[in-house]
Amino acid sequence: MADETKVEGTGGLSLEAMQTMLQQALQQQMSGIGDQVKDAVKAVVADEAATVKRERTAQDAAKGAEADPVLGVVGPYIAPVAMEARGAVDAAVFYPSHPQALKYATEIEQTHSAWATRGIHTTRAEIWTYVQGLHRQDIGKAEQEEAEAATKRAALAGSVGMGSSDRQAQERDPYSMTLEELEKALDGVIL
Q: Would you say the pTM of this structure is higher than 0.85?
């Protein structure tokens, strides 16, 4: 026998009708939560699958190294030598192509060694960029002074003539000079 009691403030709905409506609303909310939970579980499963795949790839790579019995025995001894050889080649290529870095060679090499000790393997060109950042004011000032000196040398060379040294230009006509004045003017000029 159904309860036909009317509930006040519900527009004349019975208690049974109210219970049915509440159950339906609760089921709808639960199904929405269920979809969210399903989506969250799918995301977690996908992340876990990606992690397992990465681990298997790493394990396969490790097995490849272990498959070669000689590499497994001599690998730990060869690795540091190979790293030193790569470092020597890097230095042999870097310093001739970056002559301005020679002034900071000690600092570059110390940084290279310190970083390699910490497991940071990088090229000297990258370290040179780092050192330039540390000494940007000194390097900028030196480059400016070098440019000014080059400009001065070019001005002197253009005014005195070919083969001249850093001396002031003669404004006198050489045909009007005495022999002593000519010798003095040509002193230090290589003929």
A: no
> Using one digit for the tens of pLDDT, what is the confidence trace for 78-127?
887 888 888 888 888 888 888 888 888 999 999 988 988 888 888 899 99
Separation of alpha carbons 14 and 12, rounded Å: 6
Q: Cβ distance 164 to 157 under 8 Å?
A: yes
d(Cα 174, Cα 184) in Å, to the nearest integer? 12
3-state secondary structure of 2: coil
CB atoms under 10 Å from CB of 123, counted, come to 15
Which residues, 6+ apart, have CB-to-CB distance to 40 below 8 Å? none
- CB under 8 Å to 116, separation ≥6 — which residues? 83, 87
DSSP label of 165: -
Burial of 80 (0-12, 13-18, 19+ CB in 10 A): exposed
pLDDT bin (cut points 50, 70, 90) of residue 24 is confident
Amino acid code (one letter) for 121: H
